Structures are given as C-alpha cells and as structure tokens.
Amino acid sequence: MDPRPKTEQSPSQPPMELKPLPNHLKYAYLDSEQQLPVIIANNLLLEQEEKLLKVLRQHRKAIGWKLSDLPGINPSIYKHRILMEDIKPIRQQQRRLNPTLLDVVKKEVTRLLVAGIIYPISDSQWVSLVQVVPKKSGMTIMKNQYDELIPMRIQNSWQVCIDYRRLNQATRKDHFPLPFIDQMLEKIAGKSHYCFLDGFSGYMQIHIAPEDQHKTTFTCPFGTFAYTRMPFGLCNAPSTFQRCMMSIFSDLLQDCMEVFMDDFT
C-alpha cells in the first residue's frame, strides 16, 4: 500500500529556471520547444556541436531535468534505513520565517510534492525543523573597511534544508568507509582520457524504507511532511549512497571507473 495520503488537488510543476552562465559556456536544447536544456562549451565548431547534441538526444532517458524525471533506484535493490537507539522521540515546533524565506520554502515544498519526494503526514513521533541558508557560488573582489581588496563569495540563492541533529543523535551510526580523495586521484592519474559525470539529485534517487519514512518528518508554515526519498542531513546518508553506488558499479571499479558519492570518473 502507498503510505502517502491522497490529496484533492496536486500543486503544479514550478517553471524551470535557467541560471546565468560564464562566457565560456552556453545553453543548447535537445527539443524544439526548448524545454530540455543542456550546458555545452561556447567555442565548439558547428559540426562539433551538432555531433554532441546528436549523442545527447540519443540518450535523453539518461538525463534528468527535474525531480519528477527520477524513477529512483528500485527499493528491492537498495533502500535507506534509519535504525534508532532507545531514545524518546522529539517533536520540534516550527520557527517563524520572514516573507522572503517563506516564499523560498513554499517553492521547495511544492517542487518536492509534485515529484512525490515528500508527502503530508500528521502522526509522526519525530518532527524536525526546516531551515533556509544562503547558497553561495562564485567569487568577486570587494574593498573592506580598510580599503583593501579582498575576495568575497557571492550569494545568489537560498537553500532549504532540514535540521536533523536531534534525529541523528538518536540514530544508530553506519560506519561504512568513504574513499580517500587523494587515493582516488592517484588511481586515475596518467590516464589518456577522462569522463566526469555528476549524479542528478543523487541522494533522492534512493528510497527510504516505508517503516522509516515518518522519522524524516519536518514542519514548516505549510504543514508537516515526510520524505519518501533520502534527503541531505541524515547522518548515515553518505554511507548509504556510497555503498549503493559501489554495489551497482562493482564490476567496473578499480578497472575503468572510480566513484565518490555522486561523482563518477
């Protein structure tokens, strides 16, 4: 049975937002309606660009543009468990948000609801808080109060995350080891060709075991919701994801492929 309650109306899919690109990159599209953008180099010859887009169009099913494009990893292959120590559940109360952050949370909740990543819930023993933090990318040079030029990171958006610290304190820890980045670099050093792939919303491709989904409940001004897929912030999420990827690509590791979380080389 599907544990998610049925709602009378489903929220509409938020429009796709294209971010500004540096001068050496540009957007190209895999469809005539310009709904499937990809980022390519700006200095490709016309023939090179056409060949690249032809390959990408042939493998469109491997590319995701929004969360609803993600079928997720079959739960029979792998799913995330949240095993608890003997600790009393904690229900936290929501915090006030200013109008700007309120709009950010509303858009994110709508996006996740449309994709089926979260669902409304009202009877969870565990309730965590939603937080909105600045998301910074890129650098600029600015003068400080002493008229000195210093590098500053640019904030261009906000990121919604869940404060799972209380839940993590009560969670039995998974000690699966993560690879050392320097050792991975040594393994790929000296190769003649490299291909770098980045998994799209990698964590959210892993389902949470139905009996553990209620533990991921968070509260916000728009209600209380629980995750069907693995969100950021859970203490054992990195171990779960790395173990899953190593299991899936076990026949390629150490031969022609290295995996660190959602980065594939």
The counted number of beta strands is 10
Name of the level-1 CATH class of the largest domain:
Alpha Beta
Give the radius of gyration: 21 Å
Q: What is the 3D shape?
A: globular
Low-confidence stretches: none
CATH superfamily of the largest domain: HIV Type 1 Reverse Transcriptase, subunit A, domain 1
Structural class: alpha+beta
Please identify, by name, the CATH architecture of the largest domain. Roll
Taken together, the total number of domains comes to 2
Using brief descriptors, characterize the structure shown.
three-stranded antiparallel beta sheet, HIV Type 1 Reverse Transcriptase, Chain A, domain 1, 22% strand, 2 domains, globular, alpha+beta, five-stranded mixed beta sheet, RT_dom, RNA-dir_DNA_polymerase, Reverse transcriptase domain-containing protein, 265 residues, DNA/RNA_pol_sf, 5 helices
Written overview of the protein:
This is Reverse transcriptase domain-containing protein. Residues 155-264 form the Reverse transcriptase domain. Pfam families: RVT_1. With 265 residues, the chain is α+β, with helices and mostly antiparallel strands. It has two domains: 17-65, no CATH class; 69-264, HIV Type 1 Reverse Transcriptase, subunit A, domain 1 (HIV Type 1 Reverse Transcriptase, Chain A, domain 1). Helix content is 21%, strand content 22%. The chain contains five helices and ten strands. The protein has helices at residues 46-58, 99-115, 165-170, 181-188, 237-248; strands at 25-29, 37-41, 118-120, 128-143, 149-163, 197-198, 218-220, 223-227, 259-260, 263-264. Strands 3-8-7-4-5 form a five-stranded mixed β-sheet. The chain has a three-stranded antiparallel β-sheet with strand order 6-10-9, with helices on one face. A two-stranded antiparallel sheet has the order 1-2. A hairpin with a 5-residue loop joins strand 4 (128-143) and strand 5. The model has no long low-confidence stretch (mean pLDDT 83).
